[in-house]
Design brief:
- It is a single chain.
- By secondary structure, the protein is mostly beta strands.
- It folds into 4 domains: 173 residues, Galactose-binding domain-like (Jelly Rolls), CATH 2.60.120.260; 79 residues, Immunoglobulins (Immunoglobulin-like); 87 residues, Immunoglobulins (Immunoglobulin-like, Sandwich), CATH 2.60.40; 330 residues, Neuraminidase, CATH 2.120.10.30.
- Strands 1, 2, 3, 4, 5, 6, 7, 8 and 9 form a 9-stranded antiparallel sheet that branches.
- Strand 26 and strand 27 form a beta hairpin.
- The chain is globular.
- The chain starts with a helix and ends with a strand.
Length: 731
């Protein structure tokens, strides 16, 4: 009997599909904004296709659930009052309105996974659609029409017998109810009903970890179980964005090793299910590992002397210290009137370093100490080394990096930064979600506005990328912004008004949604191509390595879109993805040949700089830098790698075909010459001088802006940082 019922059900589905085909359900392939179609042709095509259902305000809803509430929405345009996100917020008091102008106009929802769509309910405001269609798509590029009409009347149109499959559902309007073209479409709610075809529900966040035990080199934690609609298959344990342990779904405790004594760490847990869905993170447990009991400092470095002096740098050398366990590194101080100011550091095996950012023709008094892994620091070297920098001689080619001038400070995490046509600066405050206008000549600054819908992640999410179109900004004034929202990471654009020096939040247009978010690995860097035709974005894997190899996912990628958010026709996967296999991309820059270079974080072995090619696979999670299964056919090798202790690099910029790389944990700037497709003549500057470096950008005079990322850059708390913005003169 059961087999017969299934057979009858299959017959009904087949006959129904055939009937829909006869009725005119067709497949169309177009970009996300198919403006190439002429409005008259679209209207004629839809008028020729009979409706697949009736439009009855009082229709009885199907049993299928609502899938679309608060899902990411993307529109062809939006009026100043009415953002795309209002179309599925569950409230008829808000609405999406398209801008006035030519048809077609459209809006689509990302359901997050493939679904069978059985019903769509549209609730129109006064400006409705006379002619429109409902389309579904797997990739928001190729669309299948499942409903069309040329007799729309507005109000509530409940389309109750639809039959289509896709992750994206679109209302595509070609004729408005109003003859007055100054009015756009006005849609209060777009509700999509149906069933999801696969498990797309991630587990709930695990409970905030508690401390079980700790040693100088390990921490053991426990947490309350996550729940899942199918079942939790495993847990990933992190400290400060680095994966440190994994356990199965029935284990609620884990140990992270290879830690250092007397160091503060932040531990949290993500849950996974068998379908690969990853939860949002648990709360963070902050633990400072205990001292190892070693109280013996290293011996004092000997014979501190200078080996080279320029107008802005001094190269020091010394004899190595020894320690009863091991020397962990060296610190260099400038001692003035008994006060010691750290001006540099060196790694454990070094016996010298270059101190940069000095003032020409100035006396410095250097002292070097050694420290061990338990934080014990030796006495300072004696005698204090007195060195006077040379008189200024400009910035000769041999120096590379010369005078450093502080032009501003900020108490939040300085992330994206752009130069305006008048030479002033706009930068993002990641945790406060504000954009700040800085005059580098005077240091005066002003918050020009707060980005709507931005949300932090108790980690490294928030307000990240900032970019302007190098060709059109002077006339269009669009600021392109990447940020974390309550549901995802996204790219938007908002107009800047130079007359009032304000952010015009009512002009916001959402360009890309559905980039998964997590506590860490949110990416965020934006970069326009030099010709202004395409906007590129770096994304993180959202702490789910499987995302990086999935070309249908926007995570762990370099993305490429048109300035209006549509997908370029020549993108390799017919979506926004340009390259894939990345862990956490935070640096993008173009060289003089128009080639795109990229910087990304490794986990705990090495970071990498890549030369990006269309459709390229850069190997993560199988390959980290040159470690792992990097010999796999198709993986593209990095052009340079950095041990994470000397790297953890974020922003990059290219000036006169030298690549500059700003590093956080490594507290240094790399300068690398681009020679063909190789990086040569690698130099290091500012090692330990200014702390963590996050952002570098070209300055109008041929120099470089450089911003630090010190204090509060992993906790999402606004205004608890201590950062500086510098101008760096370059040879």
């Amino acid at each position: 009997m059961l087999r017969d019922l299934r057979h009858i059900r299959r017959l009904i589905i087949v006959v129904g599909a055939a009937a829909l085909a006869v009725a005119g359900v067709t497949t169309v392939t177009a970009s996300a904004a198919p403006a190439r179609s002429s409005p008259s042709a679209a209207v004629a095509a839809q008028a020729a296709a009979p409706n697949q259902t009736t439009s009855t305000p009082g229709a009885v809803p199907t049993a299928d659930p609502l899938l679309s509430l608060n899902k990411p929405a993307t529109a062809s345009s939006s009026g100043s009052c009415c953002r795309a996100a209002y179309v599925d917020d569950g409230s008829s008091t808000t609405r999406w309105a398209s801008a006035s102008g030519a048809d077609p106009q459209w809006i689509y929802l990302d359901l997050g996974a493939t679904a069978h769509v059985s019903r769509v309910r549209l609730q129109w405001d006064t400006s409705c659609a006379t002619a429109y269609e409902i389309d579904v798509s797997a990739d928001h590029t190729s669309w299948t029409k499942i409903y069309s009409t040329a007799a729309g009347k507005g109000g509530v149109e409940d389309l109750t017998t639809l039959d289509g499959n896709g992750r994206y559902v679109r209302m595509y309007g070609t004729k408005r109810c109003r003859a007055d073209a100054s009015h756009g479409y006005s849609l209060q709610e777009l509700g999509v009903y149906g069933t999801l075809g696969t498990d797309v529900t991630p587990p709930t966040p695990p409970g905030t970890p508690t401390l079980v035990s700790d040693t100088p080199n390990s921490v053991t934690i426990a947490w309350a179980a996550s729940t899942d609609d199918v079942g939790v298959s495993g847990y990933d344990i992190y400290h400060d964005g680095q994966l440190c342990a994994q356990v199965n779904g029935s284990t609620l405790t884990a140990t992270c090793g290879s830690l250092s004594p007397n160091v503060a760490y932040g531990f949290y847990v993500n849950a996974r299910d068998a379908a690969g869905n990853v939860s949002q993170p648990s709360g963070t447990l902050h633990v400072t590992t205990p001292s190892s009991g070693d109280t013996t400092p290293p011996t004092v470095p000997g014979d501190v002397h200078s080996t080279a002096v320029t107008s802005t740098s001094v190269t020091l050398a010394w004899t190595a210290s020894t320690d009863n366990v091991a020397v962990a590194g060296y610190r260099v101080y400038n001692v003035v009137n008994g006060t010691s100011t750290k001006v540099g550091t060196a790694d454990a095996n070094a016996t010298g370093t270059q101190v940069d950012g000095l003032t020409p023709n100035t006396a410095y008094h250097f002292q070097v100490t050694a420290y061990d892994g338990n934080g014990n620091e030796s006495a300072g070297s004696t005698p204090v080394l007195d060195v006077t920098t040379a008189a200024s001689d400009g910035c000769p080619p041999s120096q590379g990096v010369c005078t450093v001038t502080q032009v501003g400070t900020d108490d939040d995490v300085v992330w994206g930064l752009v130069t305006l046509p008048d030479g002033t600066i706009l930068f993002n405050e990641r945790d406060a979600h504000d954009i700040v206008h800085l005059n580098p000549k005077t240091g005066a600054k002003k918050s020009i506005g707060t980005v709507p819908d931005a949300q932090s992640t108790d980690g490294e999410g928030g307000l990240t990328g900032l970019e302007t179109n190098p060709v059109s900004f002077a006339s269009d004034h669009w600021l392109y912004i990447m940020h974390t929202s309550p549901t995802d990471n996204r790219i938007v654009r908002i107009k800047y008004d130079p007359t009032t020096d304000t952010l015009q939040t009512g002009t916001e247009q959402v360009l890309v949604t559905g980039i998964e978010r997590n506590k860490f690995h949110n990416g965020g860097r934006l970069r326009f191509s030099p010709d202004g035709k395409y906007l590129y974005a770096g994304t993180g894997d959202a702490q789910n390595g499987a995302n990086a190899q999935n070309t249908s996912s926007l995570n762990g990628k370099v993305l490429r879109i048109n300035p209006d958010g549509t997908i370029p026709a020549d993108n390799p996967f017919h979506n926004a993805v340009w390259s894939y296999g990345h862990r956490n991309v935070q640096g993008l820059a173009f060289d003089s040949e128009g080639r795109l270079w990229e910087q990304e974080f490794g986990n705990n072995i090495m970071d990498e700089t890549n030369l990006i090619v269309k459709g390229g696979d850069y190997g993560w999670p199988s390959c980290e830098g040159t470690s792992g299964t990097c010999g796999t056919a198709g993986f593209i090798a990095p052009k340079h790698t950095y041990p994470v202790a000397e790297g953890s690099c974020s922003g990059i910029t290219i000036i006169r075909d030298f690549l500059y790389v700003a590093c956080e944990r490594g507290t240094r700037l790399y300068r690398e010459q681009i020679s063909g497709s190789a990086l040569t003549n690698v130099q290091q500057f500012f090692v330990g001088t200014y702390g963590r470096l996050r952002t570098v950008e070209p300055a109008p005079d041929g120099g470089m802006w450089m911003a630090t990322s010190n204090g509060g850059d992993k906790d999402s708390i606004p205004h608890n940082s201590n950062n500086q913005i510098f101008h760096v003169a370059l040879s």
